[in-house]
Amino acid sequence: MTRGGKTVIKDGPERRCIVSGASGDARALIRFVVGPEAQIVPDLAGKLPGRGIWVSADRTMLEQAEKKKAFARAARQAVSVPEGLADMVEALLLRRVIDLISLARKSGLALAGYEKCRDLALKDEMAILIQAHDGSTRGKTKLRPPDGPDSYIGWLSAQELGLAFGREHVIHASLRAGGLSKAVVEEATRLKGLRTGIGGYAAGEDKTDA
């Protein structure tokens, strides 16, 4: 617990959100730098040169950072912020998640389809269950995520999940344990913060099976 009662995560390097002032694991925040022509540039990989400016991976925080000119204060200079910054960050995070799942598929760590996911669960080899948020709730509850935290991802659409597997759509997918699986969870968790109102296991109304 930090001074003032703020809880911090100690699993990795800590950074402070320029909007809320809360400190936390850098993997739960978005890094920005001041790019050419003093424009704010998202640095999701954390590799761009320059002093990092950090905002919680949360749509409201990003919108407040833009509205309250928090980027300019943190950079100590006048800066320009791209229009629709939160939407831009969401799209970039989505691309990273899809690419990582695709890599996991090529490595044999990611499988798609109800039967394959069920078999993986029966063998106790499923580390993470991924289900499309727009799939049938009744159909999705036939599979359960493994016990433990960070074992369920439910905020991708069937079309988005399909892109990772080279298909038109995918409702059920799963990941075996491995380095790529950890990266998928980290990036998907950041994406969830930009997608309010979706993603809980067995939540939502019944929809037509895709």
Automatic annotation (TrEMBL):
Domain YlxR, first and last residues per copy: 15-90
NCBIfam families, A to Z: PRK09190.1 (NF006622)
Protein name, per record: YlxR domain-containing protein
